[in-house]
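Q: I have two molecules that I believe assemble together. Could you output structure tokens for the complex as a whole instead of separate predictions?
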Amino acid sequence: MDKRPNILQTSQLSVSVPSRTLVRDVTVGITENQVFGLIGPSGAGKSTVLRALNRMTDLVPGLKVTGDVQLHGRSIFAPGTDANALRAKVGMLFQQPVVFPASIVDNVLFGARRLQSLSKSVQAELAESALQEAALWSEVKDRLKAPAAKLSVGQQQRLCLARALATKPEVILMDEPTSALDPRSTEAIEALIKRLKSRHTIVLVTHNLRQARNVGDQLAFIGVRDGVGQLLCEGTVESVLNRTDVAEVDEYVCCQ
Amino acid sequence: MTKTLSWLFSLLAVATMGLLLGIFIWQSVPVWKHEGWSYLWEKKWYFRQHEFGVMSMVYGTLIVSIIALVLAVPVGWGAAVFTSEYLPRRVRMAVKILIELLAGVPGVIYGLLGILLLRDWVYDTFEAFEPLSGDTLLTAGILLAVMILPTVVTLSDDALRAIPSAQRLAARGLGLTRAETIFSVIIPQAARGLGASVLLALGRAMGETTAVFLVVGRQDNNLPDSWFSLRAWLDSGQTITSKLVSSETNIAYGDSIHWGAMVGLGLILLVMTGAATLVGTFFTRKPHA
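A: Yes, here they are, computed for all two components at once.
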């Protein structure tokens, strides 16, 4: 068993809307520098759990989060916590790439520029290193001022990754980051995820068991039981995918 | 069939517009013959002497509209940001319905309110500048500001709401605050729509008649030496609409030159409001969509 400390720890995390509970009592620990996968059927609440990890859940009116999430042992819901600073430290990549209607380089620096004022040379360095880290540099280095919307969808997703990386996050939350992409772009992102974990911790929601096997270190299965999403099992990738005693996992794995 | 019919009706719409313009040009021919281009530049309008210059009325229309925009646009944009970005969806709908109801209140009602509330207030507030009465260009401008406010708010709100919420989420996910998201993501993308709301509101302001008529003082030939004189805002004035709606229009009908001068005013107003509306509509369209 890994003895590194948990960078993220949820305890009894539940999320509900006024009419019902979406997901209940999720307690998981996420170790530093690993890829932690969240799998499970649609609608079980994987994305909801993911969004609670950087308090994106605050932005949905009516959503109520109970339980706790700790980053480095500190509750992210503690009074006085700056949720915006938290989101810069715990970055996010969405299903669909969302680029801003600006140039490639402006997109990369979008979040970083808000955090602190940067000199021109530092900005250029930061943009290059973030784009390098997102494996996009060689494709765009000659057209940094070109509109980001001109890039292919796969490139746009890597641009979004670079944009998140530019704020120097410790954790990157990825919500099915390849579901809108073609196989080649998917491959590129997966290779990236494996590389990024040397410096970041990644929480990855995926529908794709091949992807979970390929990039994941630890896995948590969130399934629906009694009409509520809950954590049904967790552990190493193989141990989770080979569980036959949990009916929901068995069914989910064999149906893919 | 559908295609033919839609062409036919489009053509009909264009033809109607053309016909309208044609009639106005044709009816105003006598004054153009009589005054030439000086009809546009001349400052004096004495119909008994057959002197027709529209400048002071164009001035009046522009000044009251500018006052209205200066007051209504910042408030309207602010309110739109509030309704679109801060209010929960349901409350936003309620507020929007209310605002649209306000837009439907007849101008004469606003005019009565203007007489009741605004005239004395302007007179008292600016007493130091010794206005002759409370019926001033400023009074009309303030009243117009209230009247065009719903237009600015509702069009700006639509423009802001048209920005996909994924953009907001992406910005918030990067750690931007709500205010930063609004200023660096939402407003830049909605800029064209926000601009269009101003131009369409300008079109409304220039064309508004009754309310302005009731509080503007309807003083002919009141053109200050400088167009930029602020003191002149506290004088009574005349706008194109307040002139046209006055009884002079009925008197004019018997005299082809006088009548032409009145219709010419209508033509100028038509061109001014038309231009604002056209540019405004053009603005709403995205350049590469």
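A: One point stands out. The domain at 6-98+170-254 of chain A is CATH 3.40.50.300 (Rossmann fold).
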